[in-house]
Amino acid sequence: MPGSRVARRRRYLVCEPRHFAVRYAINPWMHPDLPVDVSLAQRQWRTLIGVYRDHGHTVETVNPEPGLPDMVFAANAAVVVEGRVFGSLFSAPERRPESVPYEAWFKSEGFEVQHPESVCEGEGDLVPAGRWILAGTGFRTTREAHREVQEFFGVPVIGLTLVDPYFYHLDTALFVLDDENIAYYPDAFSPGSREVLGRLYPDAVIATREDAMAFGLNSVSDGRHVFIAPEATALAGRLADRGYVPVPVDLSEFHKAGGGIKCCTQEIRS
Length: 270
Ligand code: ARG
Fold this sequence. Notes:
The chain has 7 helices and 15 strands. The longest helix is centred in the N-terminal third of the chain and has 17 residues, at 38-54. It has one domain: L-arginine/glycine Amidinotransferase, Chain A (5-stranded Propeller), CATH 3.75.10. It has helices at residues 38-54, 99-108, 143-153, 191-200, 209-213, 233-241, 252-255, and strands spanning 11-15, 58-62, 78-81, 84-87, 113-114, 126-129, 132-137, 157-161, 174-176, 182-184, 205-206, 220-221, 225-228, 245-248, 266-267. A 3-stranded mixed sheet has the order 2-1-15. A 3-stranded mixed sheet has the order 3-4-5, sandwiched between helices. Strands 6-7-8 form a 3-stranded mixed sheet, with helices on both faces. Bound molecules: arginine. Arginine binds at residues 26-27, 30, 70, 73, 75-76, 95, 124, 169, 171-172, 257-259, 263.
């Protein structure tokens, strides 16, 4: 039913890519010897922020810190549900210091922050989806963290095992369309996890490997508009068939670090 989807206004937290670079390799996308065009990255990022604002969303920023080239990936810094903030404990030592400025930002905004005891990478692996939280493990966030998250929020956490190193975070293999549905790439998951997703979401939008490799699943949906990588054309077509409105935004420079639209976007859910 095209046209029937309803957008809900969102509050996003982002971090300007002033110090963005690929200096170390912690996923298969990262090649420190290949150049990154920082001014192109900044233009692409500013376009994304402009598009969010044009669609009525609130965008807030945390100050980037020198020496933290992945800090632009705000999604990894926390997961926020009903105004409660569960922070991050990054797997890679290079990223661990990012928690400090992000947690400071949340505290300065009046939020209390729970700091995890086990490795946990925020919305990279913890994806609130209506009545439950979908939680990835296999590369970064641990099962122990899933337990901590369920205990903290009192929301059921559904553990899903990722098996393909190109899709090392759950938000590279799956995104939430609205409270009822998701889009995902089945082969990124273990057989049992695929079955779980099939039971929970029999009407899910299924993506191809090409869509997934184009960061098409690292998308952000407001319930109607889906901010999506322009190369994920098959997926965009399927979304349009279901009544969503794909809004292409090119963040290709960030793909060199293994990130895309969703990675750059933390949602603050009140
Ligand atoms: N270079 C970063 C890392 O490997 C990219 C993070 C992308 N963020 C995401 N939500 N998938 O940690």
